[in-house]
Amino acid sequence: MRDNEQVCHQHMKGKNVLIFGGLGFIGSNLAHRCLELGANVVIYDSLDPHSGGNLFNIEDIKRDVQLHFHDILDFDPLVHHITNQDIIINCAASTSHPFSMREPRTDLDVNSRGVVNILDAIKRFNKDVKFIHLGTSTQLGRLIYQPADENHPEFPTDIYSANKSVSEKYVLIYSKAYGIRATVLRLSNVFGPRATINSPEFTFNNYFVGLALENKSITVYGDGNQKRNTIYVEDAVEAIVQAGINDHGNGETFFAVGDEHHSVAQIAEATVKYIGSGKVIYIPWPMERKAIDIGDAVISNKKFKEIFHFALKYNLQTGLKKTAKYYKNCMEKYL
User: Fold this and answer.
1) Are 225 and 263 in contact (CB under 8 A)?
2) 253 near 213, Cβ under 8 Å?
3) What is the pTM of this model?
4) What does the alpha-carbon distance between residue 209 and residue 213 come to, in Å, rounded to a whole number?
5) What's the CA angle centered on 45, arms 88 and 316, to 5 degrees?
6) Which residues pair with 218 in a beta bridge?
């Protein structure tokens, strides 16, 4: 067993871990990993259709976890379940950028008010817990310098990203004002097994995977040259675990993102190549999408890697190969 694996087992074994949004993409992968490391896992999810939850995501572990169907907007059940937890990870969110523009009040409730509910419950009833909150790289908006780091100004271009930015600040305020051991991890274009791959409302590169699996055309706007940072879900989960088992990052924000940057066109072409079907077509930008596009998103993960001594295991090619293997055995559950 590798040294890092031993450390993870040592710190996670027997721990009580609560995952808000644990039926979703990242949350369900995190639940699998925490079980592997010997933790006792509680999943808390409302199966909000705008958040990408899927019961099949935990089909193979459903007897090994506690599952509770509640909404983070309901304070009383939240309080009941946060007590006696050692680590709480907030993966719950309304994650669609376009939906947030159509329904800003709904996005505000889930991505801001829900986070305040969690923080207030922790402050009042479990102040010693370790809390991890997931943010997004799109909080920055259009970059004014590259690679962007944690000191980059934030001018989000859609409601989802704006509310994620605000909720991050709530976490940092509660951490500093009340001594809560909280860390924010901003992720970028996470892809892999257990994602929502049948809708453009969610992460674009996972939707590309779904289109390729169905041997359909992947549509790229314009020339597709805008750069994006991608990270395979197993690497993202390992980053969350590392942040959860130590206090190096308390009261701080980190970009837990990939090492590589690819253009949207390159991601589309690689998806077709490694999924093994589909094709890429290029069309003009729709006006409503061009208005909120952020251009290149070149982001540094230097701070996270230095503080947590973290190394990624996957790149775009190896991640897509593992992704293809997973979905081809259960496509009907996701398409």
Assistant:
1) yes
2) no
3) 0.95
4) 6
5) 75
6) 280
318's CB contacts (< 8 A; 6+ apart) are 232
Q: What is the mean pLDDT of residues 99-104?
A: 94
Mean pLDDT for the stretch of residues 158-179: 97
Asked if 31 and 62 touch (Cβ cutoff 8 Å), the reply is no
Nearest to 45 by CA among 92, 78, 112: 92
Is residue 73 pLDDT above 90, yes or no? yes
Which residues are CB-neighbours of 284 under 8 A, at least 6 positions away? 221, 222
Q: Using the predicted structure, report yes or no on whether residue 2 has a pLDDT greater than 70.
A: no
- b/e per residue, 140-150, with b = 16+ CB within 10 A? bbebeeebbeb
Nearest to 204 by CA among 238, 230, 185: 230
Contact 99, 145 (CB under 8 A): no
Q: Is the pLDDT of residue 38 over 70?
A: yes
Q: What is the pLDDT of residues 181-240, one digit of tens each?
A: 999 999 999 999 999 999 998 999 999 999 999 999 999 999 999 999 999 999 999 999
Which distant-in-sequence residues (6+ apart) come within 8 Å of 10 by Cβ? none
Q: Which residues contact 176 (CB under 8 A, 6 or more apart)?
A: 251
CA distances from 288 to 23, 115, 164, 220, 221 (A): 30, 29, 21, 15, 12
